Amino acid sequence: MTAETLYWLFSTVAQTYGAIVGIIGMLTVYKLQIIRNKKTEIIKQTDRQLQYFFDYKRFTMTPEDIVYAWETGNYDKRNNADTAIMDNLIKEIKQVNKVTKEIKTSFKAFLVYHLAMITISMVCLLQTEILETSNIRITLAISTIFIISFILTTILCYSLLKE
Description:
The protein is mostly helical. The chain has helices at 3-45, 47-54, 63-72, 83-126, 128-133, 136-161.
């Protein structure tokens, strides 16, 4: 490989990873907004039960506040409303929170991995002259790393975007 070929290879790889991060970042934010809207919808569906248990405070409570108040017993225990509905609400909020946490964790791993690959590509880009004159095995090893990383990128993208 010539120095110019290596230059364009590493330049393209860095730009491609940057574009992938932008697209996946946008889709992740969109997915998190959908989940946040689902939390709001869960609360709206059970608004009457929230009135019984939390009285006036329900208007200022977030879903996380409701879970905390329910688990700590910080609600009006004089009401004899159906607690099964509230237990179901709490279960749904916890499930949505779990999914949110998983998405954020996956995106952080995705982001760190891709920023590392962009950095490696930029370092290799600066060293194209040295890589051209060095042993062909170095260039082959770097190319193999990038091919494997594209496969891993596909897997990470799938894990972030699955329903």
